Amino acid sequence: MDNTRVLVTGGSGFLGSHLCERLLNDGCEVLCVDNFFTGRRSNISHLLTHPRFELMRHDVTFPLYVEVDQIYNLACPASPVHYQHDPVQTTKTSVHGAINMLGLAKRLRAKILQASTSEVYGDPDIHPQPEGYWGHVNPIGPRSCYDEGKRCAETLFFDYFRQHRLRIKVVRIFNTYGPRMHPNDGRVVSNFIVQALSGQPITIYGDGSQTRSFCYVDDLIEALVRMMNTGDDFTGPVNVGNPDEYSMLQLAREIIRLTGSRSEIVFKQLPTDDPKQRQPDIALAREKLGWQASTSLQDGLEKTIGYFAERIESLNQTPNAIN
Ligand code: NAD
Ligand code: UDP
Ligand code: UDP
Known about the structure:
Blueprint: E1 5-9, H1 14-25, E2 29-34, H2 41-44, E3 53-57, E4 70-73, H3 80-83, H4 87-108, E5 111-117, H5 144-164, E6 168-173, E7 176-177, H6 188-197, E8 202-205, E9 211-213, E10 215-216, H7 217-228, E11 238-240, E12 245-247, H8 248-259, E13 265-268, H9 283-289, H10 297-317
Parallel strand pairs: 1-2, 1-4, 2-3, 4-5, 5-6, 6-11, 7-10, 8-13
Antiparallel strand pairs: 9-12
Helix pairs in contact: 1-7, 4-5, 6-8, 6-10, 8-10
């Protein structure tokens, strides 16, 4: 890839920052657009002096006029704690953000990839989840702003594809973790690691029997780039995730083991509509992208623990440095 101009919305977030870095390494020009709701400058501070990197503070719910060849639309808070903080803004980000980015792609005839989510399957009654499954989603609950917002964004992508012949790519991302998650992100892997490293109780919601399948960030980024570079006839949706499935109790025990922590496990109330199980069927990703996750949970957790251990240490040395 050479001199391709790529827009990454949500580029200073957890996944977006890794994607910007990867695209720069591939030789692209990268325009990172973010309103810094959950993203941080520190995630991309090492890229700011790169000659092919540009940062723009902008909210995707407003129109955006720039010139690019490809768009990765990642802008949207992903942690339940953050997307429920201002649920109306979450829906606007998914829906108005998708309309604006699709309008931009239409004007430029640019290829556009949507970071969709396993949440479009809701609390699934089919297991593992293939792309053909339509899901089991509560339209009026506390998670709906995210789930339905992302479902509507998928609808918009496919309508722009049918109506305006846009070149679209829809990826359904399953739980992904790794360095640069915010320590207060609220998602389970970062919560457990920060709790284990700082000797606080590990908070399991419910009885810990609910399951998730965790993908390491480098594997996920590889799949996003492969998806963007598939032929125009392949739109997705395609599931991307690591099918190895764990209960939250197993995850807590593994993190305690790997950190050597003395933290106790405490049980808290299970949030409303929390999905009981989740595992991607990745047959389509294997076939169309030649992709499967290659990082084991242990290897990925070790790298992530290393990242948080370093951050906690530097925070202890400079107590006012929040980011
Ligand atoms: P994140 O919260 O770290 O990143 C989201 C980024 O979007 C942040 O930088 C935030 O500031 C930015 N943003 C939010 N609203 C915006 C707006 N209106 N305008 C501009 N920027 C805005 O989360 P992440 O884990 O990096 O997730 C990135 C994308 O991937 C999201 O769309 C999310 O739904 C999707 N996804 C992630 C996962 C996962 O496990 N990490 C799973 C499924 C889907
Ligand atoms: N849009 C944008 N950048 C562009 C082109 C369009 O942000 O370069 C926005 C525009 O504000 C519009 C949306 O994308 O609200 C959808 O554009 P489209 O052309 O599909 O629809 P229309 O403008 O006809 O409503
Ligand atoms: N969870 C937990 N303790 C925490 C944070 C989350 O037990 O401190 C649980 C949560 O209830 C859910 C699972 O871990 O069952 C994954 O939660 P996360 O917010 O990471 O992602 P999502 O629910 O969106 O898959």
